[in-house]
Design a protein that fits this description.
113 residues, alpha+beta, three-stranded antiparallel β-sheet
Length: 113
């Protein structure tokens, strides 16, 4: 069983990881191929034009796609990874907070000595 001191220390350590929250992005990075309807020899050959897209889902099944320049892709990858790390850290903090609530509950049940 985890003690209050250990749970609080673990939570504080996780909180210290939450830095640079301005550099997060939620979504998926996709590579699509765009085909022009007419007048493009490359598209006429069936090659098309590769394009990077940030795809973000919203409630109700709606999605938004943002076209990216090739030089933006590394920055977007890094921000997506940072979002995943922040989310994992928040989940771990939530679990520790639940343990602290259980400790509070159990301590309140113990008779005073």
């Amino acid at each position: 069983m985890m003690t209050r001191k250990r749970a609080t220390a673990s939570r504080d350590k996780l909180l210290a990881r939450l830095t640079n929250l301005g550099d997060v992005l939620r979504g998926s990075l996709l590579q699509r191929t765009v085909h022009h309807s007419s007048g493009c020899p490359k598209c006429a050959r069936g090659e098309g034009h590769p394009l990077w897209v940030l795809n973000v889902g919203y409630p109700g099944g709606r999605t938004r796609q943002l076209s990216l320049r090739p030089d933006q892709v590394p920055q977007v990858r890094k921000a997506l990874d940072h979002y995943r790390q922040v989310k994992e850290t928040l989940e771990a903090i939530s679990e520790l907070n639940q343990q602290l609530l259980r400790l509070d509950r159990d301590e309140a049940k113990e008779p005073a000595q």
